[in-house]
Design brief:
- This protein has 275 residues and is α/β, with parallel strands linked by helices.
- The protein is 41% helix and 17% strand.
- The chain has 11 helices and 8 strands.
- The protein has helices at residues 2-13, 17-29, 43-46, 89-95, 119-133, 143-154, 172-183, 187-201, 210-213, 238-246, 264-274; strands spanning 49-55, 58-65, 74-78, 100-104, 137-141, 162-166, 221-226, 250-254.
- Strands 1-2-4-3-5-6-7-8 form an 8-stranded mixed β-sheet, sandwiched between helices.
- Helix 1 (2-13) runs antiparallel to helix 2 (17-29), helix 2 (17-29) crosses helix 8 (187-201) and helix 5 (119-133) crosses helix 6 (143-154).
- The longest helix is centred in the middle third of the chain and has 15 residues, at 119-133.
- The protein starts with a helix and ends with a helix.
Amino acid sequence: MEKVVGALVNIFSLCSMQSALHWVHNLFATPRKGKLKPQQLPVFLQQAQLDFFWYKNEKVYTYQWNKEATDKPLLLLIHGWESNSGRWEELYTYLGNQFRFVAVDAPSLGMSYGKNLSVKNYQDVIDLALITFKPQFVIGHSLGAFALFQQLSEGDYPWIKKAVIMGAFDRFEVILSHYYNLLGYSKRVREAYHNYIEHLINKPLYNYCSTEAVKFVEIPILCIHDRHDPQVSYEEAESFHQALMHKKNLVVSTTNLGHSLQDEAVFKTIQAFFS
């Protein structure tokens, strides 16, 4: 089915590349799952204090726990692709009352408005969340981890003490390459979308990678990645891991915990890092 859609886009691009790029971007940036309806919120999110802020005239929803415990440090949680803030329940349960917590639903996911999620608009939302809440600690997972790390390399957030990056890829070019191959786009379409993305992020795609971003992130980082991650290749991220360790950051490699990294050993490692 994907190849059929890709073939139609290739044909359509011969008449209107601009219209073809609209479809290419929508297919790439539209999550298929992870949306939440107000009447179907899991109990974990119902127990939080629900709020929102605005991003480009659309609501971005946030959830806060232990908000009144102002003596405790604040931990900001950033989820990944086709996910939502509900994914943090096990981590929250393990860390208990050691922190105040705030989680953010990415655009078009969870309760947040929008139809598309690009890394660029996720970076913009993360920037707003970092400035709004001023957390001492922050954790990102998967696409959220990549977007968080990119934003940490580009922005100035002196209140952040440490960050945890979970299951993050290195090069955005690799993600695009997988997408191109899945849909079977023509070279002409690939090059046009490549240029579109570079315009969106305002930098060459070869520089849009975690390894490059390490040069500009000075706070201590804990990176956790499973050696058998089925969604984000451990081997693809090894250059990123090496760059982190070169700057005396901590890289923890797990085995058979999958991409989600939902495990007590992971939570214990995070707890020790923040302590």
